[in-house]
TrEMBL record:
Name this protein carries in UniProt: Phage major capsid protein
Major subcellular site: virion
Residues covered by region (Disordered): 69-96
Lineage: Bacteria, Pseudomonadati, Pseudomonadota, Gammaproteobacteria, Pseudomonadales
Compartments in which it is found: Virion
InterPro entries linked: Phage_capsid (IPR024455), Phage_capsid-like_C (IPR054612)
Length: 440
């Protein structure tokens, strides 16, 4: 146990004694002369310990900042400065690097926070990583990630999670909850004649309520990567990428199609009102004209609901988009050439493998979404928790059980809390029974 942590534990014990004495008076009793003297003595000891803790923390911070990093090759005093690699492979730290370094150290130490802090100090890691590991305390669910690292990794999800990438609004949850008012009916404005009463009208309001839902992602990391000592941006970039990809895929799966039952958030598919769920034209009698009218009809649903169209976009499975991309008109020209630029009918397209292509009775249907993403919100609890195991097993993409021990891997479990919802459900249109491209 580090000196700082030991002093904090000692101070907590003294504070508990002070509180016990204070409870006597709170309950209507009075302190004896001996107890009053004890109270004063405890107060002095607490103040002295607080001052010592501050000095020890400053000393640790200075020691971490001045530590000589360990080179992966030389392992000596000739190592490059912390956070960098000399030579032609020099790279800048990317978003999520601090979280990746903290994860790598904790995984190498099998969740032992004090050992990880010492590894950070000896390995020349940045001072914020060393300090974070020196002050966090492990809990039953794992180690709580400092908020600055958690914010960094959540922001790095934006280019990975297709729902975030399309422009949803991220808002903090206050004590795990967020209530956003929404307008459900507009003010009616009318013209009146002379000596006529002005009609009393007004807007009607409703609420969108978000509450923290717990999401967990399992990330297998090679022990060969964890064995690399010192700061290496390329290694940290791989770890950060694995973390964000796993979390991003989990978010897309739930923010698009989760039904909101039990502990799940409600995704776009189940937020969409029934009158905005449209059945796609059947493949048997499909024509380019019918396809174009149908896609335009999806857009019209939002336009007719007075939805601001500046932040709208499409979500679909890759199979559907590649089929649309291959369509040709009667002259052999591409029907939608803008798809090559990531657009469809003037709006950006997001691809997600989390939109199934095996829906329906025959297992060959998919869905298309047209959404005003500026109207959608992710409520986020900025606390992330990470846990580790080198013995647990997990299921791969094919559903096969994989032993981390046999694969020489360490499993990192990331637990996040968030929820998803739109301010106006009319901003979501879903096409179902989409069999387009099923033969591709």
């Amino acid at each position: 146990m580090s000196l700082v942590l030991q002093m904090r534990n000692d101070r907590a014990g003294l504070v508990a004694q002070v509180q016990a004495l204070a409870q006597i008076e709170a309950g209507g009793g009075s302190l004896s002369a001996e107890q009053l003297q004890q109270f004063t003595s405890l107060e002095t000891q607490i103040n002295d310990l607080t001052a010592k803790i501050k000095r020890a923390e400053s000393a640790e911070q200075l020691a971490a900042a001045g530590a000589v990093p360990v080179s992966e090759s030389a392992q000596g005093a000739t190592s490059p400065p912390a956070g960098s690699i000399s030579g032609p492979f020099s790279e800048k730290a990317k978003p999520g690097t601090g979280m990746a370094q903290m994860t790598r150290l904790l995984a190498a130490a099998q969740g032992n926070q004090q050992m990880a802090a010492q590894l950070a100090k000896d390995g020349g890691y940045p001072s914020d990583v060393h300090m974070a590991l020196s002050v966090v305390t492990p809990g039953a669910g794992g180690v709580l990630v400092p908020q600055n690292f958690a914010t960094d990794i959540i922001e790095s999800l934006r280019p990975v999670s297709i729902v975030r990438k399309m422009g949803v609004t991220s808002l903090p949850l206050n004590n795990g909850n967020l209530t956003m008012p929404r307008i459900t009916g507009n003010t009616v404005v009318s013209y009146i004649g002379s000596d006529t009463d002005i009609p009393v009208t007004g807007m009607t309001f409703g609420d969108t309520k978000l509450s923290a839902k717990t999401a967990a992602a399992i990330v297998p990391i090679s022990n060969d990567l964890l064995a690399m000592s010192g700061v290496n941006p390329r290694v940290d970039s791989i770890v950060a990428s694995d973390l964000t990809v796993s979390m991003g895929l989990s978010e897309d799966l739930h923010f698009i199609r989760a039904d909101g039952s039990g502990v799940l958030p409600k995704g776009l598919r189940h937020w969409a009102p029934s009158f905005n769920v449209l059945t796609a034209p059947a493949v048997a009698d499909l024509t380019l004209e019918k396809i174009d009218l149908f896609l335009g009809g999806m857009m019209l649903r939002l336009e007719a609901a007075n939805v601001q169209m500046k932040s709208c976009g499409w979500l679909m499975a890759p199979r559907v988009l590649r089929w649309l991309q291959s369509l040709r008109d009667g002259n052999g020209n591409k029907a939608y050439p803008e798809i090559d630029l990531g657009m469809l009918k003037g709006y950006p397209v997001g691809l997600s493998t989390q939109i199934p292509v095996n829906l329906g009775a025959d297992g060959d249907e998919s869905e298309i979404y047209f959404v005003n993403f500026a109207d959608c919100m992710i409520g986020e609890d900025m606390d992330l928790t990470i846990g580790f195991s080198s013995e647990a097993s997990y299921k791969d993409a094919e559903g096969n059980m994989v032993s981390a021990f046999q694969r020489n891997q360490t499993l990192v479990r990331v637990i996040a809390k968030h929820d998803f919802g739109p301010r106006h459900v009319e901003s979501i249109v879903v096409a179902v029974a989409v069999k387009w491209g099923k033969g591709m």
